UniProtKB/TrEMBL annotation, chain A:
Keyword Cytoplasm: yes
Source organism of the structure: Acer yangbiense
Protein name: Proteasome subunit beta
Function: Non-catalytic component of the proteasome.
Classification via SUPFAM superfamilies: N-terminal nucleophile aminohydrolases (Ntn hydrolases)
GO cellular component: cytoplasm; nucleus; proteasome core complex, beta-subunit complex
GO biological process: proteolysis involved in protein catabolic process
Automatic annotation (TrEMBL), chain B:
Segments forming a coiled coil: none
Protein's UniProt keywords contain Cytoplasm: yes
Keyword terms: Cytoplasm, Nucleus, Proteasome
Alphabetized PROSITE patterns for the sequence: PROTEASOME_BETA_1, PROTEASOME_BETA_2
Keyword Cytoplasm carried by entry: yes
Protein's UniProt name: Proteasome subunit beta
Organism: Acer saccharum (Sugar maple)
UniProt cross-references to Pfam families, sorted A to Z: Proteasome
Function recorded in the entry: Non-catalytic component of the proteasome, a multicatalytic proteinase complex which is characterized by its ability to cleave peptides with Arg, Phe, Tyr, Leu, and Glu adjacent to the leaving group at neutral or slightly basic pH. The proteasome has an ATP-dependent proteolytic activity.
Family named by the database record: Belongs to the peptidase T1B family.
Main location: cytoplasm
From TrEMBL, chain C:
Places the protein is found: Cytoplasm; Nucleus
Entry GO CC: cytoplasm; nucleus; proteasome core complex, alpha-subunit complex
Feature: compositional bias, Low complexity: 243-282
Record-given protein name: Proteasome subunit alpha type
Pfam families, per database record: Proteasome, Proteasome_A_N
UniProt-listed PROSITE patterns: PROTEASOME_ALPHA_1, PROTEASOME_ALPHA_2
Principal localisation: cytoplasm
Keywords: Cytoplasm, Nucleus, Proteasome
Keyword Nucleus: yes
């Protein structure tokens, strides 16, 4: 701990700039996949302050321009800051009014540079971002971490999702999933996360992006079953606990 | 609130292994396509091989974000070079540029471990290996990344190239034919994948010779 | 002798509402050897006339690649043209670095025009003495722009700048209606014919012209001499002895609808009808 503090003061002693060393309010996993006509993305709406469930209705899926959809886990204030950057970017793009627009590939690349630049300044944006989109018949799905690690894939998931949802996706994902099948698969992933990720809450949104544009669902909850006997009396059979 | 996150680090190791072998008139560059963080796999299809110029290819493992930044920087420098000189950069020139670029960040290094393979100005295969801060050497074959400790001794054993300590210096290129070199690379990775958890999923092999560039893939263990 | 009181620096207006220094810079463009450009839906072709300054030198490069999807042809001060080309190249590289996609042509052109405009409003600067034909391809198709020292820019279907460009303009005005659906090779043919118009009787040879193409599936590149000569021979358009087919009446009308207001204004005093043949032989002093 002492060495940690020594390190911290080393990083911030030059001036009085505070750099982010840890997050305050965080959102948990985002899961996304490609399907027949575009991209589907899901996330819950909880915002955790440590282990306190501080916010219960945060939107973590946002449309970016006409062709992109952004999902974020991690520090919520940093995510909202990123949204401001992107807003400016898209506004600037619209102001040209010249028939050119940024597609998901461009936005993803821009975000990659932003995240990597901030890590170079030892002042990271504490997020893992998922960017999906469709432009000119081309589906795009990619991810960026807070230190700039980035890649594309047919399905992605952040945080706990990478441990719990991606194995399911690797098993069941197909190139030609229909919308209904895609939503069902995402719900399956979200249900597993809800059961096993303590910071997940049962209020989620699913967003879809196709050539036609973005639609983000109203918040809804999944049907769960907690009536297993082991849940009802967890200490039975756990001798010597208390 | 108590701090619960471990102290933040600007680096990560995304794993992966790279091999390059130079022959008399060809060069084979290979790398697996797995990208990991810790014990998790991020993606099974990430190419670590980057074409920097007509006759130079770089395979890199280490921290993906640094690798990407490095690749983009070199691509931009190569564009400028083409504008100014109206030709492609040669592999030895690219090798020096890569070294300078890495050393420029000596005190906040690119955490990337590279092998550069290509054909030199005479059309002979060449391989350069680097450390993260830019020291480099031209060799007959090279290997970098998480599986390098498993692969390197195997290459030493199989290629039996003349010792670099011999005087006068002997040619470093391997006596293998192109097809033999490709087979050797496949064997290397099949073995490394067995023991190195960061190597696997798929092997990408790029062969560079007088005819141009050819790509081959081989499936590797996915566990 | 008459001396203009309002042309000693760029930032001084004349009572008639003109900026003489800017107009002089526009004149520099007309002194340079000709450059032409034309486009179809999918391709842009740039061309220029190569004039060597003396028997003892080779000509200067007047067409530059900016990126795989953009190129420029210049007329006027070549040195200024090089500086601006370098600026455009670095803008393209920077955009590519952040977005991994090509910079839209129209946006580069506006940035370039803004850069030129700054020089018309600062007492310690001088306007660029070069006109640029910027050709390129982006999401919204093929584009051809003309950027001039005043900071104005225009999009064209086809255009010509530099000395004796009026003849080429006349040729292009007669033919541009069909350009939109032209094939790549037809576009090159028209480019060569337009270049020939500016030669005024001189034989068209690959050694005195440069042609460059950019289009769908074709990165910007300058055609080599051999290719150009082959095309000239194939099209049988070397011309030479027989007088070029320029309409005599068209040569008289200055600029046409497309020409910039400032240039038209500059003409009313001087006999600056786009470089008469007389001044041409006495070399283009600014094209150095």
């Amino acid at each position: 701990m002492e060495s940690n503090q020594a390190k911290n003061s080393l990083l911030s002693s030059h001036d009085n700039i505070q750099r982010t060393q840890y997050p305050y309010v965080t959102g948990t996993s985002v899961v996304a996949l490609k399907y027949k006509d575009g991209i589907l993305m899901a996330s819950d709406m909880g915002g955790s302050y440590g282990s306190t469930l501080r916010y219960k209705s945060v939107e973590r899926l946002k449309p970016i321009g006409k062709h992109s959809l952004l999902g974020a886990s991690g520090e919520l204030s940093d995510f909202q800051e990123i949204l401001r950057y992107l807003d400016e970017l898209i506004l600037y793009d619209n102001m040209w009014d010249d028939g050119n627009s940024l597609g998901p590939k461009e936005v993803h690349n821009y975000l990659t540079r932003v995240m990597y630049n901030r890590r170079n300044k030892f002042d990271p944006l504490w997020n893992t971002l998922v960017l999906g989109g469709v432009k000119k018949g081309h589906k795009y799905l990619g991810m960026v971490s807070m230190i700039g690690v980035n890649f594309e894939d047919d399905h992605v998931a952040t945080g706990f999702g990478n441990h719990l949802a991606r194995p399911i996706l690797r098993d069941e994902w197909r190139e030609d999933l229909t919308f209904e099948e895609g939503v069902k698969l995402l719900e399956k992933c979200m249900r597993v996360l809800l059961y096993r990720d303590r910071s997940a809450v049962n209020k989620l949104q699913i967003a879809k992006i196709t050539e036609e544009g973005v639609t983000i669902s109203q918040p809804y909850s999944l049907k769960t079953f907690w009536g297993f006997s082991a849940f009802q009396n967890p200490t039975v059979g756990a001798e010597g606990s208390w | 609130m108590t701090k619960q996150a471990a102290n933040w680090s600007p680096y990560d190791n995304n794993g992966g292994s790279c091999v390059a072998i130079a022959g008399i008139d060809y060069c084979v560059i290979a790398a697996d396509t797995r990208m990991s963080t810790g014990y998790s796999i991020l993606t099974r299809e990430y190419s670590k091989i980057c074409k920097l110029a007509d006759k130079s290819l770089m395979a890199s493992s280490g921290f993906q974000a640094d690798v990407k930044a490095l690749q983009k920087f070199l691509a931009a420098r190569h564009l400028i070079y083409q504008h100014q000189h109206n030709k492609q950069m040669s592999c030895p020139a690219m090798a020096q540029l890569l070294s300078n670029t890495l050393y420029y960040k000596r005190f906040f290094p690119y955490y990337s471990f590279n092998v550069l393979g290509g054909l030199d100005t005479e059309g002979k295969g060449c391989v350069y290996t680097y450390d993260a801060v830019g020291s480099y050497e031209r060799v007959g074959y090279g290997c970098q990344g998480s599986g390098s400790t498993l692969i390197m001794p195997f290459l030493d054993n199989q290629l039996k190239s003349p010792s670099p300590l011999l005087l006068p210096a002997q040619d470093a290129v391997t006596p293998l034919s192109e097809a033999e070199a490709v087979d050797l690379v496949k064997t290397c990775f099949a073995s490394a994948t067995e023991r190195d958890i960061y190597t696997g999923d798929k092997l990408e092999i790029v062969v560079l010779n007088a005819d141009g560039i050819r790509r081959e893939y081989m499936e590797l263990r996915k566990d | 002798m008459f001396r203009n009181q309002y042309d000693t620096d760029v930032t001084t207006w004349s009572p008639a509402g003109r900026l003489f220094q800017v107009e002089y810079a526009m004149e520099a463009v007309k002194q340079g050897s000709a450059a032409i450009g034309l486009r179809s839906k999918t391709h842009v072709v740039l061309g220029c006339v190569n004039k060597a300054n003396s028997e003892l030198t080779s000509h200067q490069k007047k067409i530059f690649k900016v990126d795989d999807h953009i190129g420029v042809a210049i007329a006027g001060l070549t040195a200024d043209g090089r500086v601006l080309s370098r600026y455009m190249r670095s803008e393209c590289i920077n955009y590519g670095f952040t977005y991994e996609s090509p910079l839209p042509v129209g946006r580069l052109v506006v940035q370039l025009a803004d850069k030129a405009q700054v020089c018309t409003q600062r007492s310690w600067k001088r306007p660029y003495g070069v006109g640029l034909l910027v050709g390129g391809l982006d999401e919204s198709g093929a584009h051809l722009y003309y950027n001039c020292p005043s900071g104005n820019y225009f999009e064209y279907q086809a255009f010509a700048i530099g000395s004796r460009s009026q003849a080429a303009k006349t040729y292009l005005e007669r033919r541009f209606n069909s350009f939109m659906d032209s094939s790549r090779d037809d576009l090159i043919k028209d480019a060569l014919l337009a270049i020939r118009e500016t030669l005024q009787g001189e034989t068209l040879k690959s050694s005195i012209c440069t042609v460059a193409v950019v289009g769908a599936g074709e990165a910007f590149h300058v055609l080599d001499n051999e290719t150009v000569q082959k095309l000239i021979d194939a099209f049988e358009i070397a011309g030479g002895e027989e007088a070029p087919a320029a309409d005599p009446d068209a040569a008289a009308e200055e600029g046409g609808a497309a020409d910039q207001g400032a240039a038209a204004a500059a003409d009313q005093g001087a006999a600056a009808t786009d470089q008469g043949a007389a001044t041409e032989e006495g070399v283009a002093p600014m094209d150095i």
